[in-house]
Amino acid sequence: MGSHNAKDFQALSMALLTVSDTRGLAEDTSGAALAERIEESGHKLNARDIVTDDLYSLRAVVAAWIADKSIDAIIINGGTGMTQRDVTPEAISPLFDRCIEGFGELFRHISFTEIGPATLQSRALAGIANATLIFAVPGSPGACCTAWDKILAHQLDARSKPCNFANLLPRIRVA
């Protein structure tokens, strides 16, 4: 896993979106787990919302955050499964300027050690849009913790070696 080098920590500004037809803020244990991890790591949680599994509502929230220059990264939990209502990949992938192909593959690889072949039902994905990092993970608390603890905490920390997305952001922002 990523080790740390001497570079100073750089707090990123993040937005967190839960996609659910059944949860409100009080029941959003997955979003709460991610919010806690974001803040404990030293990053800033600048926006948090819950949206139903509706392609256009979901896309509208994410598009607004992509347009907000003060947001460095968006984490979406939920809506990545296989049912008709699971539309997160379809909602956000058209917004990507560039896909981060390895994110979903790595998430499923790590998840396999925890839940076995059921990981096939995850359509976790990531990309970059308007110099904003976007990560979509399953909505279960376990999956959210796996994604943060095993991937995102390292890739969003400028001190992680040998490379990370936090250090790439200035170069991604260059037009």
From TrEMBL:
SUPFAM superfamilies: Molybdenum cofactor biosynthesis proteins
NCBIfam families: moaB_proteo (TIGR02667), molyb_syn (TIGR00177)
GO cellular component terms, semicolon-separated: cytosol
Pathway: Cofactor biosynthesis; molybdopterin biosynthesis
Function of the molecule: May be involved in the biosynthesis of molybdopterin.
CDD domains linked: MogA_MoaB (cd00886)
Residue ranges constituting the MoaB/Mog domain according to the UniProt record: 15-159
Superkingdom, natural source: Bacteria
The protein's name in its UniProt record: Molybdenum cofactor biosynthesis protein B
Keyword ATP-binding: no
Native source species: Halorhodospira halochloris
Gene Ontology biological process terms, A to Z: Mo-molybdopterin cofactor biosynthetic process
